[in-house]
Write a structure and sequence with these properties.
Layout: H1 2-33, H2 56-70, H3 76-89, H4 95-98, H5 100-118, H6 128-136, H7 143-151, H8 158-178, H9 182-198, H10 202-228, H11 252-258
Length: 264
């Protein structure tokens, strides 16, 4: 009974956490979608007489802070919060609760990418990136963090090298967050291409694959039998005995004949 009550309590807590995260994701998304930098006196004096943000003055401040720090990558935050909230409700997505560091890594690499894309336009007052940055009041398309990552070490690799590193981090993060088996997908793609080139049918390819799997299983079973010490009849193999043939042994019959009878 105690275990059942504990499981029900944990399930109820998960439901509450999932609902709170989903509400936070929705509030942040609405605040970002309706963001107007003229709502804040820190950006323009005087500010808008009536706040345009759908979540009010607090929503305007939260959206402004998210854009300053994360740049355009701030739009990923509501989506990530929403996916994590689903992990508290659905068992198939529960692994997202444990793999949130990979989501953080994905966010960082995306901020780096955005800053790299904005590099050629940082001093161009008429570019699309400049107008977009001004609309969200961000110092760079990647925000303070994307700009700081590049200035604190990735600039040593240059834009091309930094782009390769960011792309690798993106791929690794997505593989861990989606459970996508890249190796299996590539092998299946290669097998499909080889089948087209050889003209073999899908049934023949499946039979060949099944034959390879059976051969592999037979080899594994043979190795397991050898390790277990059983023979082909599945009986234990007796320990080998060694006899010294240099020492003569008397035959049983001759020994009995040569033995003298005991006196009565």
């Amino acid at each position: 009974m105690a275990r059942k009550a504990s499981e029900q309590s944990a399930r109820g807590l998960n439901d509450v956490l999932g609902a709170c995260l989903l509400a936070a994701a929705l509030l942040l998304a609405l605040a970002q979608m309706s963001f107007d930098r003229h709502d804040l006196a820190a950006n323009i004096v005087p500010p808008n007489a009536a706040t345009h943000n759908w979540i009010g003055p607090l929503g305007a401040h939260i959206a402004n802070a998210s854009f300053l720090v994360f740049g355009f990558a701030a739009y990923m935050l509501p989506m990530m919060l929403g996916f994590v909230s689903l992990g508290y409700w659905f068992e198939t997505l529960s692994y997202l609760k444990r793999r949130w560091p990979w989501a953080v890594l994905l966010l960082l690499s995306c901020m780096g990418w955005l800053h790299l894309l904005d590099l050629p336009h940082l001093k161009d007052a008429n570019s699309f990136f400049t107008h977009a940055r001004q609309a969200i009041n961000a110092p760079s398309a990647g925000g303070f963090i994307g700009e700081g990552l590049y200035d604190c070490g990735f600039d040593l690799l240059g834009p091309l090298g930094a782009g390769i590193v960011y792309g690798t981090l993106d791929l690794v993060s997505l593989l861990f967050l989606t459970n996508f088996q890249l190796g299996e997908w590539l092998r299946a793609l290669w097998a499909r291409r080889a089948r087209k080139l050889s003209g073999a049918t899908a049934e023949e390819t499946a039979l060949e694959k099944r034959a390879r799997e059976l051969k592999k299983q037979a080899k594994e079973l043979q190795e397991e039998v050898e390790r277990s010490g059983l023979g082909q009849d599945l009986q234990p193999v007796p320990e080998p005995t060694v006899r010294d043939l240099s020492v003569p042994t008397a035959k049983a019959g001759r020994s009995r004949k040569g033995s003298a009878p005991e006196p009565d």
